[in-house]
Amino acid sequence: MALALLCHPTGHHNAGWLHPSTQAGASTDIDWYRSTAQLAERGLFDLFFIADTPAARTSNLEAYSRYPLFMNVFEPVTLLSALAGATQHIGLGGTVSTSFTEPYNVARMFASLDHLSRGRAAWNVVTSANDFAARNFGLDKLPPHARRYDRAREFVDLVGKLWDSWEDDAFVRDRTAGLTFDPAKQHVVDHKGEFFTLHGALNIERPPQGHPVIIQAGASDTGKELAAETAEVVFASDATLEAARRFYDDLKGRMPKFGREPEALKVLAGKPVLIADSQGEAEDMYQTLQHLIHPVVGRMRLGMDLETDLSDLPLDEPIPEDRIPRNSNFHKAYFDKIVEMIRSEGLTLRQLYLRYERGNQTLRGTATQVADHLEEWFTAGVADGFMVTPSLMPQGLERFVDGVVPELQRRGLFRTAYTGRTLRENLGLKRPPNRHVAPAPAMAAAK
Ligand SMILES: Cc1cc2nc3c(=O)[nH]c(=O)nc-3n(C[C@H](O)[C@H](O)[C@H](O)COP(=O)(O)O)c2cc1C
């Protein structure tokens, strides 16, 4: 199975930064990131992943000051470039939004990261989901969800074309012939589309992986369409095996119409985990963290995904139906999940914000129990691997690496050494051929 780490510096839990085992200043501490990436590499993880949004929040600061979501963080590609020098095997993935950048920038950054890391780069394609980000780039509000995905589709296509703007062996560096590159092996991209106009080639040679790995986590219908067409890794987020199976089958079932094989995409099920020596201890730790969630943060986190202000509502009563917005424009899948919970479970506002984990549920137990759970999902064929998100960092990662990984290895479910040189090779993904180079003739044809 594949394993990725979603690295929140103080852990996945909203109140993680208040826990004494975490380091409050970790989000801008390169030493912390270096040792954490090395720890994940010791655990033979495929991928170290950084989420992002290009904005600090500028209103409701009372709430954000109690849960500093992306308020003080490194820009992901800059950080991953530094980590490339501190690690040797683990993949390095980060989020860059297609709504606020240009394809040339992104193609160049990830090509550079792929060279810096010798073939370990991955780009998480997101369309962004908050108006704070929009306002940093000349807009009042995010464009509509469907428009953002239209732009993302053209964006990803262009980035791929730019990565193919040089053939693999274009830079010959032939001193005898006096040629640095073979002019016939440059392929200019000439594009005039709905969102972008571009004429040019990348000023860096083709990435070691051909294309850095494309990640996606969109869970709406539109998001799944884009993933089926373009993604090679998808982060899923379901709490139950049945829901995970539906998502997995749905996503892989959409691939053939884009001419893609199901194996060309790895679904990694998101797993928030809290590991302790006994189930009781894990549950106690979880409840301790839950009690640390300030109500102002609980309301804000829920209101953010429900796309409405919940600050005037009583905590111990259900959210009235007339407070549910008619449409959503941020993360559609999360919005739908909250609405479903409001309508089906009759929870109070407080119960709802304590229960809601963006469709997921923290797995709490011993290392063996966590391994059992992962084995069950993996062998049931509802995930190709897992995106592990410890509630507390780095403690949760240490427990995973020292407890769960050996257990998975003992069961023959996880590698005992890195075998590939690149992230693609470790994930079992093919290296994309350059679209301008005719495939080598098949053996049969050559006879
Ligand atoms: C593991 C994981 C990581 C994600 N990382 C980011 C991120 O870094 N930035 C972001 O804006 N959205 C991120 N998302 C949100 C997704 O890109 C997407 O918006 C969400 O799944 C809802 O999809 P939808 O808009 O298609 O409904 C992440 C989702 C998951 C499950």
Describe this structure in words.
This protein folds into two domains: 2-280 and 360-427, Luciferase-like domain (TIM Barrel); 282-355, no CATH class. 38% of the residues lie in helices and 13% in strands. The protein has 16 helices and eleven strands. The strands form two sheets. It has an eight-stranded parallel β-barrel with strand order 1-2-3-4-7-8-9-11, surrounded by eight helices. A two-stranded antiparallel sheet has the order 5-6. Helix 7 (221-230) packs across helix 8 (241-253), helix 10 (295-306) crosses helix 12 and helix 13 (367-379) packs across helix 14. The radius of gyration is 22 Å and the shape is globular. The model has no long low-confidence stretch (mean pLDDT 96). Flavin mononucleotide (FMN) binds at residues 6, 51-53, 95, 124, 126, 128-129, 217-220, 223, 235, 237, 270, 331-334, 387. FMN binds at residues 52, 95, 145, 149, 220. GO terms for molecular function: monooxygenase activity; oxidoreductase activity, acting on paired donors, with incorporation or reduction of molecular oxygen. Keywords: Flavoprotein, FMN, Monooxygenase, Oxidoreductase. InterPro entries: Diverse_substr_monoxygenases, Luciferase-like_dom, Luciferase-like_sf, NTA_MOA.
